[in-house]
Amino acid sequence: MAEETAAYPAEASREMIDAGVFYGRKKSKVNPKMRPFILMDRGGIEIVNLEKTAEAIVRAAGFVEEKARQGGLILLVGTEPAAEASILRMAKEFGLPHVTTRWVGGAITNFSIIAKRIEHLKKLRGDLASGAFEKYTKKERLELEREKGRLEELMGGLENLSREPELLIMVDPVLHKTAVREARRRKIPIVALANVDADPDEIEYLVPGNDKAKTSIEWFFGKIEDALRKGIAARAAAVAPAAADAMGKEHAK
Q1: Less packed terminus of the chain by CB within 10 Å, N or C?
Q2: Residues of CATH 3.40.50.10490 domain(s) within the chain?
Q3: 133, 127 Cβ separation under 8 angstroms
Q4: Percentage helix, strand, coil, to 5, in the chain?
């Protein structure tokens, strides 16, 4: 570890090193297009150049902040267990739609169909809460509850997806090829923590780094969270004067 750390550029952040962001993949799994992001080979594992990572996260965070300032709808994607806690925390804090189980095919490209399934899930939940299921037989209620469970597993995180997203933020785009393909088809930009096996041509804001370790993923989402807070705060600050001005004009009438 000491030898590897000594080889990093001086610009490399200690927090990235401590989080293990530098761990790449075996040489045989490297996408040749990712060579510019590799510092060296160490024991058969390619080591990510953290200077490049530092530059990339600043650019990516800036884009996320701007999208949040504009009020853009952001979709979080990360189905590996190491990403779940970070995504659920962010989804709760910012009210963002998210995918942590598996990507539902057509979530973007067939959004109208997905929206109907989401509305159906909401109706099932409402009917259960209101006691509307009581009019059905025991067998029918069981089937409806099972359907609700299946829909919650697949689409529970998409309830806030009120329209087509304007940005995807994800971990490991190689694992989420279908989501990447759908986003590219709809020309929706992607911010992603991606290891050296990814295709950088598919990701507009690629942050090179370890996309498997929980510590590395938490580092990435920590920067994204900060950017979201700044963007939301800037939006609120811009909206407040306009609202106050409108209220003043209304009272002046």
Answers
A1: C
A2: 2-108+164-241
A3: yes
A4: 60, 15, 25
Handedness of CA 95, 100, 101, 106 (dihedral sign): positive
CATH superfamily of 2-108+164-241: Glucose-6-phosphate isomerase like protein; domain 1 (3.40.50.10490)
Residue-wise pLDDT for 71-123, tens only, equals 999 999 999 999 999 999 999 999 999 999 999 999 999 999 999 999 999 88
Return d(Cα 164, Cα 162) in angstroms, integer: 7
**Phi–psi pair at 5, nearest 5 degrees:** -60, -40
Q: Are 28 and 12 in contact (CB under 8 A)?
A: no
Q: Is 135 exposed, middle or buried (0-12, 13-18, 19+ CB in 10 A)?
A: exposed
Print burial letters for 45-73: b (CB count within 10 Å at least 16), e (below 16): bbbbbbbbbbebbeebbebbbebbbeeee
